[in-house]
Amino acid sequence: MLIDGGISFDPSDAITSATRAEGDGFDGLWCAETAHDPFLPLLLAAEHTERIELGTAIAVAFARNPMTTAVLANDLQSYSKGRFLLGLGSQIKPHITKRYSMPWSHPAARMREFIEAMRAIWSAWHDGTKLAFRGDFYTHTLMTPFFNAGPNPYGSPPVFLAAVGELMTEVAGEVADGLLAHGFTTERYMREVTLPALERGLAKSGRTRQGFQISYPAMIVTGTDEAEMAAAVQGVKAQLAFYGSTPAYKPVLALHGWGDLHSELNVLSKRGEWVQMAGLISDDIVDAFAVVGEPGEIPAKLLARYGDMVTRISFYAPYRMDHRRVQEMLAGFRAS
Asked: Who has the most CB within 10 Å: 39, 138, 281, 296?
């Protein structure tokens, strides 16, 4: 299993984050698209590291188009000397239409076509095929020599797709190289919903899970004293409440019989009552979503819960955690 880290949300800290992650021994480094662009920090990381893989988790696909994304990904694959991982996600409708002012329709079908269009563009550059992609959502039929990037010596980057629902998970299995599982995923949901949907998608493309990567940001609650553990529990409860209020993630709660909790959280979120929301998250819910233990216990518990399902894992700790705890967990994985 590969162990990944994350790059700082502060763009000015990108170089420090990347070099420290590589020095610590992480295998990969993911950068999220929140208040800042996810690609630019990875360019700095590529310049100041040598071996660690660098990926977006996620870049919002529907805020872009296949051509612009193909160009960015191709360039980062070249700059990083073949270490780039393109992680895409759909986001939810309000963000696409109201924040990005972009169209929204049939997200799973649109995402399938988005990835297929990118691959057609890369093929035109790398293999010299004529660009003639015509779909229901995207059309790319013009590629003159002036705009042709030409063959990339490192090939096309692997494409990872973020998915929670069954339809998008099937698309990941059908057209992507890897799945970015969401942190708001329990072991039960992954086994009973995610993996079967992924297998259906892989079957459509005539593939198996052999060589297909599954990346999972595992929520953890860890510390070495009561104060650290209390802060970790509160941070995880707040994050779970935030995710649980989102309609797209209701099926995860519903599988466990907690569907009514989503409705309560959703109402409170619209009122901005974030503290009250965290109070609705019970210890049983924390245990279902997060691995709880001292730093030295976390690796074995993660492997026992997810080791037969995922190929790469990262530590999802939505609270301030001492860097020494990260190093302890990494050492535990290396020793296992």
From this structure: 281
